[in-house]
Each structure stands twice: as structure tokens, then as C-alpha cells.
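Appendix B. Raw example, untouched.
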Amino acid sequence: MVNFIIPGFYENFTLNVKLLELLKLHPELFRENIGVEAIYGVFPFNILDGGRNFGAYRHATVEEI
């Protein structure tokens, strides 16, 4: 099985959600043995951006998230 890791959780949020919904509801539209292993990326101004500590950034507010 081939598993993809999709970047851009925040930047491509709507696209990623639609892709996962389509994969779940209509798997016949995709090639066999293809899946999504993970989606990575964070909200802007997250202090732990991909595991890296960017303490100089301001924290994201609840409204921004």
C-alpha cells in the first residue's frame, strides 16, 4: 500500500477535508492501495511549529484558530 503525507493543514484546510471526505465516501475514484497516512502543518503563530520552538512568535488566539 502507498501512503501519502499531505502538507498544509492550515493553508489547505478546506482542500484537505474535501479530499479526505471524497476518499472515504468514494474510494472507487482513487487507485487501489492508495491512502493518506498523515496531514501536517499548524495554525499560524503556533509556538511549536512542526516540533520546532519558535518562542519569538506571538501565540495564536482562540479566534485565529
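End of appendix B.
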